[in-house]
């Protein structure tokens, strides 16, 4: 299986194509796996995919995701505030 951090960007661009120019908030972004290597790789690549989607015109206002550094008993969330426009 090949891991792609662009899944978030693909989902954001597809949503924009379907619903048009409306603000988007990412309510969850992560990868369901027990493999910490995959989790860290995805979580490291996803922000670049998100910013690429914003630069292409998708109005992303913010979001949250699961931290790659967590214990099963204590999942951590990461909040990402954004202006919604490239350079903003």
Give an account of the 3D structure.
InterPro entries: GH. The protein contains two helices and three strands; from the N terminus they run αβαββ. It has one domain (7-81). It has helices spanning 7-19, 36-55; strands spanning 24-26, 60-66, 77-81. The protein is of the alpha+beta class. Helix 1 (7-19) runs parallel beside helix 2 (36-55). The longest helix is centred in the middle third of the chain and has 20 residues, at 36-55. It starts with 6 loop residues before the first helix and ends in a 7-residue tail after the last strand. A three-stranded mixed β-sheet has the order 1-2-3, with helices on one face.
Task: Describe this structure in a few short sentences.
With 88 residues, this protein is of the alpha+beta class.
Write the layout of secondary structure elements.
Elements: H1 7-19, E1 24-26, H2 36-55, E2 60-66, E3 77-81
Parallel strand pairs: 1-2
Antiparallel strand pairs: 2-3
Helix pairs in contact: 1-2
- What composes the largest sheet? 3 strands, mixed
Roughly what fraction of the amino acids lie in strands? 15-25%
Average residue pLDDT: 75
| Proportion in helices | 25-40%
Task: Please give the count of helices.
Answer: 2
Unreliable segments of 5+ consecutive residues: none
Helix/strand order: HEHEE
Q: How many independent structural domains?
A: 1
Number of strands: 3
Q: Give the CA-based shape.
A: elongated
Question: What's the arrangement of strands in the largest beta sheet?
Answer: 1-2-3
Structural class: alpha+beta
Kindly report how far apart the N and C termini lie.
36 Å
Whole-angstrom Rg: 13 Å
């Amino acid at each position: 299986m090949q891991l792609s951090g662009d899944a978030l960007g693909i989902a954001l661009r597809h949503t924009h194509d379907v619903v048009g120019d409306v603000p988007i908030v990412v309510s969850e972004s992560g990868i369901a796996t027990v493999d910490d290597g995959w989790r860290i790789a995805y979580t490291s690549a996803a922000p670049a995919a998100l910013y690429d989607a914003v630069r292409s015109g998708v109005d992303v206002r913010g979001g949250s995701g699961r931290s790659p550094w967590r214990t099963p008993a204590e999942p951590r969330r990461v909040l990402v505030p954004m202006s919604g426009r490239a350079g903003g």
